[in-house]
Amino acid sequence: MSTGKVRVAHAAIGQVAADERERLEQRRALVVARLRGLPTASVTSTPKKSVRKATVNLYQPSVSLLNSSLYNCQMRMKISARGRRMMPAPKAQLTGLHPMEQYNVWLEFVGSSGHRECFRHPDSPKLGSSWMRDTVRFDRVKLYTYDENRRVVHDGAMLKTSQLYSVDMHIAQVEDSGHMPRSSHRKLSFVQPWFRPFNAGDPEPK
């Protein structure tokens, strides 16, 4: 890397670090003001767009599937009307997150005909430092037989036995308002091999 690029990178990192210190000081001042019953309007301020953009650019989320050896191309997964635990359950390690920002993490099941189902990790939202420290497990996700009369399942995804599916992981920062900025959203290839669901009561396809 050239000397000029190194200086630019160092300047950007320094700016982000300064902004983080300012945000922490604002949070401390806000807590003190609330405890003392003082007005808080003058304490809070909106982060500058340029600084926010620099922060997003410096932190690039990535994911590693820790049990990738358990996934085979076009493998079969059991589903049922009452829901069955996804086996094997994905385990992943996240890196590159902003340690002080809140993140939502969710899985998206993408069918070969475009059918999509999502499952948000029950720990969402959580600090980036916590996501990176702990193994991200999806032991609780259940796979249901698709039912057009049932619109939503909150603990899993409804899948069609006539389709092949892949799985992507999505990560996005969560602001205090609950909004997830489009610029912070990342879609990461998680389970690349396609799998076919089949009902638990049916014989396993050959």
Overall description:
Keywords: DNA-binding, Nucleus, Transcription, Transcription regulation. Its main location: nucleus. This is T-box domain-containing protein. One of its GO terms (cellular component) is nucleus. It holds the Pfam family T-box. This protein is an alpha+beta fold and 206 residues long. The chain has 2 domains: 1-40; 62-198, Sandwich (Immunoglobulin-like), CATH 2.60.40.820. The chain has helices at residues 3-36, 49-58, 128-133, and strands spanning 62-65, 75-79, 84-85, 91-95, 102-111, 116-120, 126-127, 136-137, 142-145, 156-159, 165-174, 186-199. Strands 2, 5, 6, 7, 11 and 12 form a 6-stranded mixed sheet that branches. The longest helix has 34 residues, at 3-36. The chain is elongated and about 65 Å long. The N and C termini lie far apart (54 Å). Residues 4-12 and 46-51 have low confidence and may be disordered.
